[in-house]
Amino acid sequence: MTASMVEILVVWLAALLLGMPLFASMGLAAFAFIFLNGFPVDMLPQKLAQSANSFPLLAAPLFILMGNIMNSSGTTDRIFGFATACVGWIRGGLCHANILASIIFAGMSGSAVADAGGVGALEIRAMKNAGYDSETAAAVTAASSIIGPIIPPSLPMVVYGVSADVSIGALFLAGVVPGLLMALALGAMVSIVARRRGLSRHPFPGLSGLWTAYRRAHWALMTPVILFGGMVGGIMTPTEAAAVASCYALFLGLVIYREFDIRELPKLIVDTVETSGMVFALVMSAAALAWCLSISRIPQIITPLLVDAIGYPLLFLLAVNVLLLVVGCFMEALAAMLILIPILTPVAYQLGINPVQFGLVFVLNLMIGTITPPVGIVLFITSKIAAISFESMSRAIIPWLIPLLFVLAAVSVWPPLTTWLPGLLIGGFKP
What residue spans define the domains of the chain? Predict the structure, then answer.
C-alpha cells in the first residue's frame, strides 16, 4: 500500500507541474489511491463530505464576508484616520499609522489579502500623497498586512486548527503576543528608516483631534473588543464569533455609518462564496489525500525517521522554518499548509513540541511567504495598488523581512511567547 501511495504522489506532483488545479490534482490522487487499492470508490465523496462537515470551518466564509462588508462600508477609512491621529506625528508617522491600522484591522478580517486590498489601498494612497515614495509605501503596507492572520481572528488559524485537530481558541490567543511583537519590530524598523531618509511627520492633532478621530472610529474599534472579549469570556466560540462579526459589520455599515449600499450585498455574498468555495475545495481534497496518507502509513514511517535523524525539537523547528520559508516562496500559503500539516505535525508532537506553538510557527512562516517573491500574493496586490513593477516591489520588501524573521526566530526558540496567554485564559490548557 505504501508503494502505491508513493506512485500516486508522483502522479499528483506531475499533475501539478502540468498546470492542473491543486484541489483537482489532490482529489485525483486520492481517487487513484482508493481505486488501485481495491477500496469502494464511493469512499471518496464520503471523505470529502466528512471533511466539509466541520463546525469550526464555518468560521472561514463568515470572516471573509465580514472583511468584504468592512471594506465596502467606510470602516477602513475611519480606522486609518484614527491610527494617523495617534501616531502620525512621529517621524515616518504614516508608516507607523499603517502598522497600527493593520493591528486594528487584524482584529476584524484575519486575512493578509483583505488587509492589503482593503485598508492597504487607502494607506498607500495617503502615503504617496504625503510625499512617500511608492516603494516604501507598498513595502510597509505588505509587511504590516501579514499581522492580520496572526492576531485573532485568523482564517489560516482556523484552517490549521481544523486540519491538525488543535484548539482554534488556543491558536487565536497564541497569536496575540507574536502579532504585537511583529508590530513593534516593524515600528523599530520604521524608526531607523525614518531617521536615515528624513521621512515626514504629521502635526500633532491635539487631544481634541485625537478625541474626534476616536469618536469617528469608535464603533469600528469595538469590533476586536467584542470578538476577543466574547471568545475569552466563553460567551461564543470562534465560529459563533465569526457570525457575530458579520452581523456587526453589516450593522455598522447600514445603521451606524450609513455608508453601505444594501444593493452591494448580493455581490459581496457572491465574492464570499467564490473565495470560500476555493478554500473548501482545497480543504476537502487535502483531507481526502491526508486520509490516504494516513492509512498508507507514510506519516507513521516518516515520523520515526525524522525523529531519529533530527532528535532535538529546536533543530527540527529550524529545519521546518527553512522548509516553510522556501515553500512559501513558491506555493500559495493555504495549499502548502494543507499539504504539509499531515507530514510535519506528527513529528512535532513526537518531539514534544507544543501543538499551539508549532501552529504559530507554521502559520507565521507561510504568511511571510505571502510577501516573498516569486509567488507572494500580497506583493502582487500591493504592487498593483502602488502602480509599481513587481520587480521593484520585490526589491523594496527585502529590508522589511528582517524584523519579521526576528519575531519568527523568537517564537521558535521561546515557547512562552505563544503558550503563555492560552495558559492564562483557557482552563486545562497545558503550555
Answer: 26-425
Percentage of the residues of the chain whose pLDDT score is greater than 70: 86
Backbone region of residue 349 per phi and psi (left: phi > 0; alpha: psi in -120 to 50; beta: other values): alpha
Q: Which of 46, 181, 221, 206 is nearest to 229 (CA)?
A: 221
Burial class (CB in 10 A: 0-12, 13-18, 19+), 56: middle
pLDDT digits (tens, 9 = 90+) for 11-62: 777 776 777 776 777 777 788 888 777 788 788 888 777 777 766 667 667 7
Mean pLDDT over all residues of the chain? Answer: 80
| CA pseudo-torsion sign 184, 66, 286, 370 | negative
HSE on the CB side for 310, CA within 13 Å?
Answer: 20
Low-confidence ranges of the chain (pLDDT < 70): 1-9, 16, 22, 54-57, 59-60, 107-111, 113-115, 117-118, 232, 279, 294, 297-308, 330-332, 375, 427-431
Q: How deeply is 161 buried, as exposed, middle or buried, from its count of CB atoms within 10 A (0-12, 13-18, 19+)? A: buried
Give the SS3 label for residue 61: helix
Residue closest to 337 by CA, chosen among 370, 292, 304, 380? 370
